[in-house]
Predict the structure.
Amino acid sequence: MQKINIILTLLCVIYFASSAIAQVPSPSRATGKPIALMNGVAHLGTGDVIENSIITIIDGKIAVVADARTVRMDLSGYDQIALEGKHIYPGLILPNTIMGLVEVSAVRATVDYNELAGINPNVRSIIAYNAESELIPTTRSNGILLAQVTPQGGTISGTSSIVQFDAWNWEDAAYKTDDGIHLNWPNMFSRSGWWAEPGETKKNENYEERIKAMDLFFSEAKAYAAMENPAVANLKLEAMRGLFDGGKGLFIHANYGKEIIASIKFAKEHGVNKVVIVGGEDALMALDFLKENQVSVILSDLHRLPNRPEEDVDLPYKLASILHKEGVLVALGYEGVSNARNLPFFAGTAARAGLTKEEALMTVTSNTAKILGIDDRTGTLEQGKDANIIVSTGDVLDMRTNNIEIAFIQGNLLSLDDKHKALYQKYKDKYEGDKH
């Protein structure tokens, strides 16, 4: 019996020791004192740069953003952080992600981003969000501080919300709840095979039928929204109400050019005020229509091959630049939750393919904030906005020099520890220790 107890004790020690390695850092606490970031290179997210800046944080808000060479301030009551030679940016924003809704895709118990049935506008991603996901610390270590958590599947997946990555639970994390409804536009064509051996392309015989079903549902939703006090509440139709008064955006997931045009026409015919295209691989084919209807685009994947053999091999890299120069508001997303931390490097690719570095930064900060309707609070380094700030020793868009040393969410200084860093240090100590 004593031997069994010893074994159980050892197993507990091993378990808790291994758990400590994967420990998610606790949410930060307010420092109380005002903070002054001194002499860093400030990239404001507006296209402007201050080479030698002073940025002050008071009560979670940015109080001052100025050139340190021309402004004079009494900083005797501030915690001053010297940042000479380092780069200061707005916190990056990740749109259209299942971050916090899945932990291990192969383990069903950790997957909660898809519901049964095809039309689920009443499904709210925010209440399923896991603020203690181990993926969150590794993501914010690359500078991503906010995300639009989005359900998937079906025709209407549900309602997304925007979270900040420093919270005990979903209530603390909520930055903007129920910002938009997500519609997966039916494919006009189905393709067989895979990327290395593509098969034939066939017309989707169910396309018209699915459009008719959507048309009926949107018509019912619009009629329901016109009633102030319906006799019987309908949860699905209640969730759609915000589309017709501007309270919510309609995020249409579509890639093929004709699908993009058809989906925008559909939304406008039903009186939807705010439309955003997500994916947008063929956005260039619908460029004039996007401009005419003032529709924004979230490009989901830059690191891919072009869709057609006659297209430039680097067209996906250049697409953000082309859309930007034509006046389309464009942001970048990253499909796949495990590698979403690489979002800034998508922007870095766009910067090498036509955008300036500051324009590329806007595609993961201020442009995204505008599209998500949170630009009054974040996305740029400006007075009065939330102090969502990152500091890197090098260029945040360059994977060779991106090194986030300091990060604030709403003025709270974050711990940048994560599982990857812990494992790196563990095995670095092991193998370097063996040399002595």
